[in-house]
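Example 9 (inverse folding). The structure is encoded as follows.
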């Protein structure tokens, strides 16, 4: 029986599974955006954080590791197809200069389903880190596979995450789903940088009153339970949904994630591979 931290087999394995990036990639901070399940706004939060970083003058990037549900290119209105060069694969740039890599940029037909088994999905997502020539990036945001299953676990172990942001809907914050994601991060010793409650409330455009569509918010209680300092709430906002649908997310107005993003600046830069 082992009892010392140094002799923990799981920990040794976790360290050894970390993958190196391409020699021409120099990524200072890698932040994973995680959710307990799909459809809660993980891609939206990934996009908004990257846009905040870019607006502040940093070079930001999005690695879309949600292989079976890639929605980043659509939100940014990216439809061009990437072709590998003899040197490797370069990301696409959005209108404001954010570098993006997503499976939808490689598929001939965006609506083709990805009918792949887990290992192929994970190796594709991992290759977006190892084989893509990202260049100099200050902040890389990773749209992680949803849930706490095998694919998410492999991504947690393969990428050198500076930390993660957990996105949840108000209903999930009542249930156990978000606690599972939080416990997974704790077990894997990955810092939780913040908790985002999406679709938190609806603000009436006439009277300005906030309506908690899904009942009372539980985000502060959960943040306290898990000692998470940064919490953010994003309202249910039809302008956001339209911006995503029309590929115009870079035009969004809102400072809900500004404080959370500012807290990332204190994170140490990664050491080169
Ligand atoms: N706060 C919000 N207000 C309005 N629509 C939203 C909001 N958050 C997400 N949506 C919409 O809900 C859908 C799912 O969001 P998405 O970020 O793609 O979820 P996930 O990546 O978790 O599956 C998208 O069509 C998005 O535009
Ligand atoms: Mg998504």
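The amino acid assigned to each position is listed next.
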């Amino acid at each position: 029986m082992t009892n010392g931290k140094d002799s923990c087999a799981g920990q040794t394995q976790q360290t050894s599974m970390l993958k190196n990036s391409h020699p021409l990639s120099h990524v200072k901070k890698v932040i994973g955006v995680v959710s307990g399940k799909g459809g809660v706004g993980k891609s939206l939060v990934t996009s908004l954080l990257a846009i905040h970083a870019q607006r502040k003058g940093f070079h930001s990037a999005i690695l879309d590791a949600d292989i079976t549900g890639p929605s980043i290119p659509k939100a940014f209105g990216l439809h061009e197809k990437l072709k590998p060069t003899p040197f490797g694969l370069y990301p696409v740039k959005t209108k404001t200069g954010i570098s993006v890599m997503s499976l939808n940029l490689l598929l001939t037909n965006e609506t083709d389903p990805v009918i792949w088994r887990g290992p192929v999905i994970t190796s594709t997502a991992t290759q977006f880190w190892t084989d893509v020539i990202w260049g100099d990036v200050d902040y890389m945001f990773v749209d992680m596979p949803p849930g706490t299953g095998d694919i998410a676990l492999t991504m947690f172990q393969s990428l050198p995450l500076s930390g993660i942001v957990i996105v949840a809907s108000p209903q999930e914050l009542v249930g156990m789903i978000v606690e599972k994601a939080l416990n997974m991060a704790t077990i894997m010793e990955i810092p939780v940088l913040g908790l985002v409650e999406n679709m938190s409330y609806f603000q009436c455009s006439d009277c300005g009153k906030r309506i908690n569509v899904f009942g009372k918010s539980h985000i502060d209680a959960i943040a306290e339970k898990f000692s998470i300092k940064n919490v953010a709430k994003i309202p249910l906002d039809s302008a956001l949904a339209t911006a995503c649908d029309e590929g115009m997310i870079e035009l969004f107005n809102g400072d809900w994630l500004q404080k959370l993003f500012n807290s990332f600046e204190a994170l140490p830069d990664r050491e080169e591979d």
